[in-house]
Amino acid sequence: YYTPSAQVNDPTWFEAQRIMARTGWRSRSNAVNQAGMETAISAFEQVNKEFDITGLRWTLHRMSGTTHEQLNRLKALGGNVNVCTRSFPLAASPAPAAAPFRTVVDNGIHAGIHMDGGHIATLNPWFAIYYAVTGRNGLGEMINPGQQITRQEALRLFTRGNAYQMSMEKKLGSIEVGKLADLVVLDKDYLTVSDEGLKKIRSVLTIVDGKVVHDAGIFA
User: Fold this and answer.
1) Cα dist. 81→25, 74, 119, 185 in Å?
2) How do residues 68-104 score in pLDDT, each as one tens digit?
């Protein structure tokens, strides 16, 4: 369900949240903008007075603006956010929606990265990371100033952060004993390659659950 500010009094969306809370389901809503964040968080707070949602990990995503006050209220409800990189293909004019990576990371709320559907943005994760760490679109234009994050932070959001949002942090997100053996060997050093080089990173060996599913033959 979408939750822009226009839906403040939308009984259908609100009732859907009540039903999900009552049954213990996850809720994922598009926040759209800062006003939409306020709409959704206020609704979640109201629902939480009737049904405890603090253990359900409700998610707000695709927001183009938020504040620490909003994020703190969402944290108090056990919620999290997923920042969208759909603006990567867009030109600098008119200005595309911002992606509040820096605000979210500095706040400390559980967070991940998503890329939207393939009909809207590329599904190449390296393009998303390039956008998150540089603030630049596919043409190299600055479109998200002041919200850049480090490569380590972007990697954490894409791995551990997304695993948490799927409630699979005990199986995915990091290389540890007892977790699924999902890993890649890259053709470039992610931490030292140039910013432009980030977009060209490729896997030369991909392992899923301990099984090789892609092998470029580099180690033959």
Assistant:
1) 17, 9, 22, 29
2) 999 999 999 999 999 999 899 888 988 888 999 999 9
Which tokens is 94 given? 């008119």
Q: How far apart are CA 121 and CA 106, in angstroms?
A: 26
Enumerate residues 6+ apart whose C-beta is below 8 A from 64: 32, 33, 34, 97, 98, 99, 100
Are 44 and 79 in contact by the 8 Å Cβ rule? The answer is yes
Class of residue 87 by CB neighbours under 10 A (exposed 0-12, middle 13-18, buried 19+): buried
Total residues belonging to the chain: 220
Report DSSP letters for 108-170, one per residue.
Answer: T--EEEE---TTTS---HHHHHHHHHH-B-TTS-B-STT----HHHHHHIIIIIHHHHTT-TT
Q: What is the per-residue pLDDT across 10-60, written as a single tens digit (0 to 9) for each?
A: 788 889 999 999 999 999 998 888 988 998 999 999 999 999 999 999 999
pLDDT surpasses 50 at 115:
yes
One-letter amino acid for residue 40 of the chain: A
- Considering Cα of 203, then 208, then 210, then 211, what sign does the dihedral take? negative
